[in-house]
Each structure stands twice: as C-alpha cells, then as structure tokens.
C-alpha cells in the first residue's frame, strides 16, 4: 500500500513522538507513549480527504511535540 504525502507526514509525526518518549525518564515513558497513542486515535475517524483538518492537526501535533520534547517536561498526564 502506497501512502500519500500527508499520510507519510502523519506516520512521521507518530514515530517522532515515540522517539522523543525514549528520551524521557524510564518510569514515565509509558505515559508519553499512551498520550501519543490516545491523541492519534482520537482522529482516526477523520475523513481522509479532509486535508485542511489533517494539516491543522499535523501542525498542532508538531507544536505539542516541540513542547513535550523540552527537557523541562518530565511527565504528561491524561
């Protein structure tokens, strides 16, 4: 199955989230992974042709990743 450019971006962001989780303390890593999974699963029902919504969510996710990548962020709660 070939992915569109937008789908590749979504998968890339998902993988970046998990890579960043590896940099967090071992006791809270799973919290970061669960948070990422939950955020992505919230939007699985989104129409694949709703490009503006997908692009918006990608930008939002990238901003959140940037914030959570900060060394000062030690844990994330849901």
Could you explain how this protein is built, in words?
The protein is built from three helices and no strands. The mean pLDDT is 93.
Which structural category do the helix and sheet elements fall into? mainly alpha
| Mean pLDDT rating | 93
Strand content: under 5%
Question: Largest sheet, described in full?
Answer: none
Outline the low-pLDDT stretches: none
Termini distance? 33 Å
Order of helices and strands: HHH
Radius of gyration: 13 Å
Continuous helix count: 3
Beta strand count: 0
Fraction in helix = 55-70%
C-alpha geometry: elongated
Quick gist of this model?
The chain is mainly α and 78 residues long. The chain has helices spanning 5-21, 29-41, 51-68. Helix content is 62%, strand content 0%.
Keywords:
62% helix, 3 helices, single chain, 78 residues, elongated
Sequence-ordered SSE layout with sheet pairings:
Elements lengths: L4 H17 L7 H13 L9 H18 L10
